[in-house]
Amino acid sequence: MKFSNYKVKTFLMAMTVFTTLLGAITIVSIQAQKRNLKAINNVSHGFKITTQLENENKPVQMGQPILLVLNTINDGNKSGFVIESSVARDFNLTVKNEYGKVVPLTEEGRRLTSPNRSVYRNKKVKLEPGESIQSKINLAHLYEMTAKGTYYVNASRVIKEIGGDMLKVESNTIQFVLK
Questions:
Q1: Per DSSP, what are the bridge partners of residue 80?
Q2: What is the pTM of this model?
Q3: What is the distance in angstroms between the CA of the first residue and the CA of the last residue of the chain?
Q4: How crowded is the C-beta side of 127, counted as CA atoms within 13 Å?
């Protein structure tokens, strides 16, 4: 079967238009999802995240693990879902130094938080009213905390309220001094 140049050009043009439209629809869909993600504080809708260092009464020493404990709590009257894959991907952590500059990720941190990284576990966990989930992560592995000084950390994560919205829940900000 032989195709004329006109048919080939028409087919290629139609495929280009289709691909462009598909891309535009995907972008509009992603933007709509971002608009529907409601940012809430620690007490709205009954969901909250608390953060603290595991050994908060001990001095934080350079070169030692800095274990951050993250508690996702449902204090409300509606159930919700969180997705658990790895703590580095489940939470959006922000670490800043005493000058307000964002501390960069280590090579390991970039690898663990990369959206291109394969996910081996993607577990949907239901949070009933009154329930909580605890997670831990070593900040020293993820962030370039190479200077002594004061650091500030907060976290956020997405929670799907059953019968409701996707919620971006933000934690308290903790502070520690690296010696």
A1: 127, 161
A2: 0.72
A3: 76
A4: 27
Q: Token pair of 71, please? A: 């508690």
Q: What is the DSSP string of 28-42?
A: HHHHHHHHH-EEE-S
Give the rounded distance of the alpha carbon of 49 from its chain centre. 13
Strand partners, 38: 167
Name, in order, each residue with C-beta under 8 angstroms of 52's C-beta and a sequence gap of 6 or more.
Answer: 68, 69, 174
Residues 6+ positions from 36 with CB-CB distance below 8 Å: 165, 166
The tens place of each residue's pLDDT in the chain, 179 residues long, gives 565 666 656 665 655 555 554 444 444 344 444 444 444 444 457 899 999 999 877 889 988 999 999 999 999 889 999 988 888 888 999 999 999 999 999 999 998 888 777 767 778 899 999 999 999 999 999 999 999 999 999 999 999 888 888 889 999 999 999 99
Cα–chain-centroid distance for residue 22? Answer: 27
| Burial class of residue 83 (count of CB atoms within 10 Å of its CB; 0-12, 13-18, 19+) | middle
Give the tokens for residue 95.
């670490």
Residue 4, exposed/middle/buried by CB under 10 A (0-12, 13-18, 19+)? exposed
**d(C-alpha 30, C-alpha 26), whole Å:** 6
- Name the one residue in this structure whose structure tokens are 């800095």: 66
